[in-house]
Design a protein that fits this description.
401 residues; alpha/beta; 6-stranded parallel β-sheet; 17% strand; elongated; binds adenosine-5'-diphosphate; binds magnesium ion
């Protein structure tokens, strides 16, 4: 893989750097700046080398047109604070504002261009459209540095096509993320446990397929629990359920048994009368969710206290743990206990702990844990999962000679 660390002579060069600055926002307030912080070392290095630095990223999921709430301007401001030097912001991505900002960049100067996804070419299914958008970005620079680990599993214009149009190199964040993930795939110290949760159920179920042969234990929480419970024949009320995935999960359960992998499911669930901070709550056995006072309208929004304790014990007994996906709707305090218990156990375990995923990383910080309490907090959820699955990631492949 071509690496920035092996590249000399950046002085005066125009360098476009693809970062993943997709941070959670509450209005214009950044609720977790972890991804910006993680991008700083490479940007700072480019600045110190005298490069003219053009930072590009997406934020949220705008659909190919500008939407004020997804502007990268607050991110540019935060980046400036973290760098301790001015950062310019261009109000478009490849238009006249961007061109003007790039042209006036001085050695060691930094500009953040507006959200890539305000342009339909960024995520277009048409290779021609992606390439056309990428060529406009390529005009701005001499060199491309790819450092947005969170997006390397996506074949998108700024990740894939741009890297083909310019001499391209992996930045320090990508190097660091790969070092950690390779440690998990090559020879993890055992017992090796993976904890999965979150809400992107069908996305994440596929991971299980590939993880089963490599892990010792699989702990399941979050939204995907209910598809497992349904596969065991239990009713799950109005909880998140992917009916069409039930046969897939049934097969996983059978294969896990064959392989001697223990799938640990919650035994109790925090069932809510509705989605919201003012919901009524009942702790119910996982196999009797509809037995809660809310009947079939009950919503499972967290693993219960007994499950949280059990999950924590399993984590403390492991030597390697990878965790992706909150155990419940941690954004609401009533439903944050499962996630808190898992995070706490990861900080206390005697071994190597890795947290991956945008919301999972945000969760541990919002719940008051420090990055340094974990072995590693990955900036990529989907990307780290696909890496662990052994898939080839287009944004990394394109950086290979
Ligand atoms: P990550 O970004 O870490 O990969 P996801 O994006 O898959 O994680 O999922 C994060 C979201 O999952 C959180 O916003 C959380 O509220 C939600 N979630 C967790 N458990 C449940 C549940 N039981 N029902 C609905 N949503 C859930
Ligand atoms: Mg997420």
């Amino acid at each position: 893989m071509r690496k920035l660390s092996e590249l000399a002579h950046l002085d005066g060069k125009r360098v476009v750097i693809r970062c993943d600055l997709n941070v959670p926002l509450d209005g214009t307030r950044i609720t977790d700046d972890g991804r910006i912080v993680a991008s700083v070392p490479t940007i700072k290095y480019l600045v110190d080398q005298g490069a003219k630095v053009i930072v590009i990223s997406h934020l949220g999921r705008p659909e190919g047109a500008p939407e004020a709430k997804y502007s990268l301007e607050p991110v540019a401001n935060r980046l400036s604070e973290l760098l301790g030097s001015p950062v310019a912001f261009a109000g478009d991505t490849v238009g006249s504002a961007a061109r003007a900002a790039v042209t006036t960049l001085e050695r060691g100067g930094v500009v953040v261009l507006e959200n890539l996804r305000f342009n339909p070419g960024e995520t277009s299914k048409s290779e021609d459209e992606r390439r056309e958008f990428a060529s406009k970005l390529a005009e701005f620079a001499d060199i491309m540095v790819s450092d947005g680990f969170g997006v390397v599993h996506r074949k998108q214009a700024s990740v894939y096509e741009l890297a083909q149009l310019l001499p391209s190199y992996a930045g320090f964040l990508i190097e660091k993320e790969l070092e950690v993930l390779e440690r998990l795939t090559k020879s993890p110290e055992r017992p090796y446990a993976v904890v999965l949760g979150g809400s992107k159920v069908s996305d994440k179920l596929g991971v299980i397929d590939h993880l089963l042969p490599t892990v010792n234990k699989l702990l399941i929480g979050g939204g995907m629990v209910f598809t497992f419970l349904a596969a065991l024949g239990h009713k799950v009320g109005s909880s998140l359920l992917e009916v069409d995935q039930i046969p897939v999960v049934t097969e996983y359960l059978a294969r896990a048994k064959q392989l001697g992998v223990e799938i640990v499911l919650p035994t109790d669930i925090v069932v809510a009368s509705k989605f919201g901070a003012d919901a009524e709550v009942s702790i119910t056995a996982a196999d009797a969710i509809e037995g809660s006072p809310f009947g079939a309208s009950g919503l499972g929004l967290d693993i219960g206290p007994q499950s949280a304790e059990n999950f924590a014990r399993e984590i403390l007994g492991a030597k390697t743990v990878f965790w992706n996906g909150p155990m419940g709707v941690f954004e609401i305090d009533k439903f944050a206990n499962g996630t808190r218990a898992v995070a706490k156990a990861l900080t206390e375990m005697n071994g190597f702990s890795v947290v991956g995923g945008g919301d999972s990383a945000a969760a541990v910080r919002v719940l008051g844990f420090e990055d340094s309490q974990f072995g590693h907090i990955s900036t990529g959820g989907g990307a780290s999962l696909e890496f662990l699955e052994g898939k080839k990631l287009p944004g990394l492949e394109v950086l290979n000679d």
